[in-house]
Amino acid sequence: MSSRTYVCFPCRWARRAPFVPAAAPRCVHCRQALTQLDRRWRIPGHGDLRGWRRLTTALALDARAHRRPEPPALDAALNALDRQLANALRQPESARLYWRLRALRARRRKRLRQRRG
Ligand SMILES: [Zn+2]
User: Fold this and answer.
1) Per-residue exposure over 84-117, b if at least 16 CB sit within 10 Å of its own CB, e if not
2) Ligand 1 center to 14 CA (angstroms)
3) From first to last of its 117 residues, what are the pLDDT tens digits of the chain?
4) pTM value?
5) How far is the CA of 86 from the centre of ligand 1 (A)?
6) Which of 6, 9, 14, 47 places its Cα 20 to 30 Å from the Cα of 33?
């Protein structure tokens, strides 16, 4: 099984791990889902603040250049939305929750349309 590089931007931390489609590993420090990067990206050292800022900017530009995300990334995004929806649905009803659910469902529909291409 091939390994990929997974990155946590808030913690400025990266690790190599086997690739599992639609199941992004989580950061051991902050428990957020890690971002998967391919090998063309150089990962800065933990203390290299400027390197991390540059990487973030480069990734944003790259994402814009490749409008259609790869299927695994899309699945991960869908899974994240599903988790958020499931969490929201467990909360007591309120006007704020109503709008949050509406926004989440709209984003989910958009993702599904993207996947169909
Ligand atoms: Zn983290």
Assistant:
1) bbeebeeeeeeeeeeebbeebeebbeebeeeeee
2) 9
3) 578 889 999 999 999 888 777 777 889 999 998 888 888 888 999 999 999 999 998 888 887 776 655 667 777 888 888 888 888 888 888 888 889 899 999 999 988 887 776
4) 0.51
5) 23
6) 47
Cα(96)–Cα(102) distance, integer angstroms:
10
The rounded Å distance from CA 98 to ligand 1 centre is 30
**What DSSP line would sit under 102-116, residue for residue?**
HHHHHHHHHHHHHHH
**Phi then psi for 57, rounded to 5 degrees?**
-65, -45
Report domain extents, the chain: 3-65, 71-116
